[in-house]
Amino acid sequence: MATQNDRTKFLLGEHDIPKAWYNILADLPGPLPPVLHPVTLKPVGPEDLAPLFPMGLIMQEVSPERYIEIPEPVREMYKLYRPSPLIRARRLEQLLDTPARIYYKYEGVSPAGSHKLNTAIAQAFFNKQEGVKKLATETGAGQWGSALSMAGAFLGIEVEVFMVKVSYQQKPYRRMLMEAYGGTVHPSPSPLTAAGRSILEHDPDSPGSLGIAISEAVEDAATHDDTNYSLGSVLNHVMLHQTVIGLECKAAFRKLGLAPDVLIGCAGGGSNFAGLAFPFVPDKLDGQKMRIIAVEPEACPSLTRGWYDYDHGDVAGMTPKLKMYTLGHTFIPPAIHAGGLRYHGMAPLVSKLVNLGVIEAMALPQTACFEGAMLFAQTEGVICAPESSHAVRAAINIARECKQTGEAKTILFNLSGHGHLDMSAYQAYMGGQLTDVVCELPTRP
Amino acid sequence: MATQNDRTKFLLGEHDIPKAWYNILADLPGPLPPVLHPVTLKPVGPEDLAPLFPMGLIMQEVSPERYIEIPEPVREMYKLYRPSPLIRARRLEQLLDTPARIYYKYEGVSPAGSHKLNTAIAQAFFNKQEGVKKLATETGAGQWGSALSMAGAFLGIEVEVFMVKVSYQQKPYRRMLMEAYGGTVHPSPSPLTAAGRSILEHDPDSPGSLGIAISEAVEDAATHDDTNYSLGSVLNHVMLHQTVIGLECKAAFRKLGLAPDVLIGCAGGGSNFAGLAFPFVPDKLDGQKMRIIAVEPEACPSLTRGWYDYDHGDVAGMTPKLKMYTLGHTFIPPAIHAGGLRYHGMAPLVSKLVNLGVIEAMALPQTACFEGAMLFAQTEGVICAPESSHAVRAAINIARECKQTGEAKTILFNLSGHGHLDMSAYQAYMGGQLTDVVCELPTRP
Hints:
The structure is a homodimer.
Chain A: E1 20-22, H1 46-49, H2 55-62, E2 67-69, H3 72-78, E3 86-88, H4 90-96, E4 101-106, H5 117-129, E5 134-139, H6 143-155, E6 158-164, H7 165-170, H8 172-180, E7 184-188, H9 194-202, H10 210-222, E8 227-229, H11 236-256, E9 262-266, H12 271-277, H13 281-285, E10 291-297, H14 302-305, E11 307-312, E12 321-326, H15 348-355, E13 360-364, H16 366-380, H17 389-405, E14 410-415, H18 423-430
Parallel strand pairs in A: 4-14, 5-6, 5-8, 6-7, 9-10, 9-14, 10-13
Antiparallel strand pairs in A: 1-2, 3-4, 11-12
């Protein structure tokens, strides 16, 4: 029989959409290392970032305030898809025969298909407020590019997307989606920028990477007066906007009278993970027992195999240097299907919390993740994105551990997006053509 | 400012999922003409249908009861995605500068991506109850095949899908989705059945049609003891299961204190249209002023250019004869992108109500529909299926008429499914490669 505990999808109403984002900078144990200018290596100030970002976002990047109000027009647009459902994966639990309770927050219901819309709407709004006409950005698998293209269509801002070439080739439907929203898409590296041309000169067949695409988009914005740059992850203000995910989960769990024992999110640049996890971090710092796990691909393991140091956010070294876990900004990850996780670095805020031991990290190979995704599709019906499959698999692993130990843990993971436009990856898995890419990882310079 | 009137997504909770389906047979003005045996031409009885369908569904097909209880396990599975959202298309209204209120019921939130899951779950359940091991079915665009594959995975029934060849080729992602849910998919016409082989003999390049695919699936079921047949539209019990759509809309509109003036659904076999419209039909019969519009493609206009007479449901003439609007069971519609609307006939229940003048019909060309779909994507964010784009475009047309007349009509349309797996059709439209297929329509024999 269904109890409220089983059925949580409608625990929240539109009034429960958060009125403010949660800013973890206010609760971080110790200060976040400053961002350094790429040339002078001195801490950057707001004026250094002004050619790329509107002041509204720059102020959020460095704000010490614990809560930052969500502007009403942004909240109105959130209402198109928020609160997103929180669902108990009953059928998966039964299949695994586990005493664990598995909940997932399903961000794939956003019209653009993932959590990325949470920050895309906010970024487009603050840029629009300051009169920006155009946004240049990068995209890996295309989730971020489609979200920003949609937000641009809503707010009347042009969007130009540099899409990592391997994803551009693997995922034509994602490109078409961006175009249907009115965005312009270039495969990256492209001949349109100096950064792109320089890569193509050395390696005409470069599969591209998020780091390269960022260089191209930053260059585009820096060299055009009417164009700003927009980043889909890594930066503090992006993590900030994503906290609506975790804040809604907290509100729902409060109604359930439950607290999660394990929080899980996949991590490329860190934004969907941070969005789920950050609002719970103060509870953990206050002594609540809780595992918080960032799951990355074995093929691009910045948290588990990288080092914590200053590095550029992009390949060409155009961005400021950030203190973060990194595999080195020249590392080009192999062409796994989870394109959104192919990033050499990690959000400084996530990195700091991993370094402090508040957050733990885990790396998984892609075949195991797809195996988990298939299990999930056949029990819960949802086809998840290859990125999200990392969280699915980690949740399954922990639920299986619970079966061994008999612990009835409450697991909450973020299902960051659907995989409807990633069916070719599923096809490759089902056809036995998917392998676990083995690559030589860089060592600390 | 948002009022309850603007924001209807959460008007209903899980308790509002209907407890019974609405059976329009109880309220039909006059009896529905009987179904005739394909050979004897005598009315068929339950025993004639038993080789294909479980008795639970056969009884629903002919039941005179106004309400038929939804079994609790079916309702539990509905809770994965129901109640589906009812959304006011505010941004579209603003763009059209219309006094009309436009609401859409969004069935694309089901994990399989369309309204088809409403009947797939029910059909799989009643077959499972009677020990059926396998279901054979047809699919056009793939929405029905994915829904039944998912329902099969949930209930432990094998699913074999004959997919119209042109869709199989145009929409590889749909096939992969069915396979990810564990279904087996064959392009139709196939060499696996006598019906398929006979078509291939005459036309090896046949694009296929729903009528051919139905022949193949029926033959498969009729020639295998452990296999039943499952149909995604046309039959009374399918219309019945889909009424959860309209029943939820009625409940929501009651809470809004509104009544729709215009109801719109696209119509291929008629099921999503009937699901929305049927629960409102008694109100119209009771004198409430209301237009109820079925929208079909100009390339396959059974309601607007066909004739109301007995015909087979399939190309090979294996199914019983149904009294319906038809273009003749041998008509192969041109290869438009809305594969789910490529059917020569129309549900007998929908046909009867059109014949009585309770429901009106309208035919639209596909380019106009895609133009409407693009407008919808850029204002409301949702990428709709090519089938649903017919309803979107009709709603836009009527909202524009309201601008001319100044009438503040309340329009409600069914957005039957998302188009994430139909991006190649959008691409064709954006690239100017989509044309309005002109074909010679058959004349009444």
